[in-house]
Amino acid sequence: MKKLVPVLAALGLAALTLTGCTLFGQQAGTAADAETAALDPLTGETARWPGQRPAAVFIDNSPDAARQWGIGEATVVFEALTEGDTSTSLCLVYPALEAVPQVGPVAQARDLYLQLLSCQQVVPIQRGATIYAANFQDLYDTSPLDALSVGLKGFTYEGVWGQPDQISWTTSGADLLPLADSSGVSLAARASADSLAESSDSTSQEDPVTLPPLLPFGEPANGKTGVSSAELIFSASSSTGFTYDQGTNQYLMSRSDGTPQADANTGAQAAFDNVLILYSAPSLRDDGYSWGYDLTMGAGVYLSGGSVWSILWMPGTDSTLAIYNSDGTALNIQPGTSYIALMGSVASQEVVLRDSHGSEMTAG
Questions:
Q1: Whole-prediction pTM value?
Q2: Which one, of 16, 81, 77, lies nearest residue 212 by Cα?
Q3: How far apart are CA 337 and CA 71, in angstroms?
Q4: CATH for the 224-361 domain, from 3.50.90.10, 3.30.930.10, 1.10.10.10, 3.30.1330.50
Q5: Tell me: the pLDDT tens digits for 156-194?
Q6: Is it true that 29-210 and 224-361 share their CATH fold?
Q7: pLDDT tier at 24 (50, 70, 90 boundaries)?
């Protein structure tokens, strides 16, 4: 059986160190280039909310969370095994708070996703935070929109008697927008003092701030064709599947039991233009339960348009993440929506690729 097993040397735990920006956009520039400013940093497509901070919603992904709102409308979805050895966590990202539909069940913030999204200055939407995420937010003075502080003024309790609280809370951008100011949350992206000083007086205060792209968007070339599906095995009881739809050129997302990953808002199956699996060296943290990931470099797999690439990734200069072919040449990522998984050698994690006949194949 040919399977892609993410085995990397233990590089230790390292926070995402970016040369193109520092945490939470301290080097975000102003919009000197109109064409660049018009692009959404999450998709590389035309931006509908230029100059706005994206919103990152943490949602529950346990077996109890049978219904998930907003996953089909998210611009980017992150997934990783962040605690224990059973269920993964999910982070749904939208281009602005205004763009957030009904979402949930809202869960604790995880610092892994905050690190990966640091240059995009995201507004965290959460129901509490892990100690590591809370420390991250305190360190970088990031104010979230939190159900534990906002309560029923901005969140809706969808629970019934006996249902766990953690899978019972939903919200939306419309519910949270009126509370952003009183919660200390600015919705506009902010530039650093250095970038403002370099800008002319006529543009520095008026033009929207340009956030760096999450990925190096452009047309990818020379992928290996023939991949019909992918199975991402995070643990013995947690996996996520993708099936390529030639009609839409998207990857349809499935749950661990093989059923479609449907959006409770629309009933439609979640689908993405890109699927990226980033291999990282994980390590248990000092609580003996939470996983930390090395975010300095790694190998991986990229799926787009029915093709697959064996990739290398690391922090970028012109984008948060730089992506390379296995031979070291730069690789572009197709503009559009993306699913991004962090995987390691935890609990025999692996990725299985199959062709249209169901036979296993490799990315190389």
A1: 0.90
A2: 16
A3: 12
A4: 3.50.90.10
A5: 998 888 888 888 999 999 999 999 999 999 999 998 655
A6: yes
A7: very low
